Amino acid sequence: MEVILDKAQNQLQQNLPFVLYCKPNSDMVIGLFQQNDELYKVHDFTEKGFVFASFDGNQTYLIPENQSEIAGVVCDKKKGDVFEREFKDPSAATKNNFERLVAKGIQAIEKDEFKKVVLSRKETVDLVDFDLATVFEKLVRLYPATFVYCFFHPKVGMWLGATPEQLLKANVNVFETMALAGTQKDSGSGEIIWEKKEKEEQQYVTDYIVSVLQGVALEVSVTQPYSVKAGSVWHIKTDIWGVLNSNSSLQQVIHLLHPTPAVCGLPKEQSKAFILENENYDRSFYTGFLGELNSSFATDSVSSNLFVNLRCMQIVASQAYLYMGCGITKDSVPEKEWSESINKSMTMKKVL
What we know:
ten-stranded antiparallel sheet
């Protein structure tokens, strides 16, 4: 892995764009190293390369295959020792603000404004001797079942993450996606028991995704919900797959799915409006999406493999901005949602 990490450091020193990523349960780290510093945009999703899109959909950028050197190395995902530093708890004011925001979301649900909303917060952590190679390697080792990435563009900034949620995998007209919702901390007990709130939240997400896909697909299949671990938390997951109509475009399917109810809410427009009005910060690329777009360098066929940008952080000078969100339904309890956001923040804090 050293070779590809050195390449990334070299791009960074020259202020040139690059992305490093490792797909879930894969031992291959892939790098796209752009040969100029131009900011390319995605216009109609027929482009080829690595896409990086914001939550609001206003910024959809691309590291193009045809402007990049592409490299891949097999990495060792054996767990090494991770020495965790102590982090001071967020301030009481931060806690109160988030719990107030959650309470406001619950009130809106009780007034039937929407069924579910995902509310998030941003936390700033001071960095001590941040080293890109070390942090990326830790992410790959600690979270082998997630999509791990480091994206850098001088005109966008640097983002790293380990996301458990696939937005869409599409190969010609065959697609796969998932409904992922509900969170609980791993207690090490082995048995995972879900409460009504989490089960309902996950069902909302599943029903929504299936209903929108039925409009563009010949067939849609769904598994039973099951528990899946991502870092130190568990989620409920349902796999969804099928075959698209011959006249359905990738752009159309992405616009139907993004933002999913797992990062926005239900109905989509009402919950998104509430988020933009009440969260009081810019999510930027958090809860956007990223991944391979019409890529063909690794396989014989052209395929797209996109993920939702969760469990991520933005690196700015000597600080990391961490982003955490919680799904709010009528049964939510503000104090519990605060605890959930703390648990989710540990995914990134563990590698700093």
